[in-house]
Amino acid sequence: xxxxxxxxxxxxxxxxxxxxxxxxxxxxxxxxxxxxxxxxxxxxxxxxxxxxxxxxxxxxxxxxxxxxxxxxxxxxxxxxxxxxxxxxxxxxxxxxxxxxxxxxxxxxxxxxxxxxxxxxxxxxxxxxxxxxxxxxxxxxxxxxxxxxxxxxxxxxxxxxxxxxxxxxxxxxxxxxxxxxxxxxxxxxxxxxxxxxxxxxxxxxxxxxxx
Length: 210
Fold this sequence. Notes:
Layout: E1 3-8, E2 14-18, E3 37-40, H1 55-121, H2 125-136, H3 143-150, H4 153-161, H5 164-175, H6 181-196
Antiparallel strand pairs: 1-2, 1-3
Helix pairs in contact: 4-6, 5-6
């Protein structure tokens, strides 16, 4: 049942009175002097809860977009940093992969060179047998070949520094074309030219017999 507050216009007495909604709306009398009274209206006792009722709420609402914008911008910055970090990591991984690939290529080159050296240092069995047979056979150095070599002082000096086995094999090779004058001359001139430059002539691996 609602409670109403009244004030006497004559003696200023205040009192409260409970009345039903359907009850006669005729104003009561003052309980002290029976004078005429008027109804008083007090502020409502309603308590508002939640957002949207206060000035601070509207203020926070106005600031919220900027705050949200800042948050979104910060989040975007973090995402960009994450992307940049991923790109940087990707570049480092690519660098490592390139370096590893380069190392593998270098190893492959080294293996190839080493294999080439082994091939150069090896001699086919048939070639080995032929070389050993020549070395076991008595051989007389043709004077005309030696004379031509001596005519080139540098070639002759280098020739004397070569092993006897090498000299024997190369001179025998030249002498083997004696019945073919053009080939004989070609072999002799090539030998003198190489010897003048202090270079050996031979197949891969034959150097160990020189």
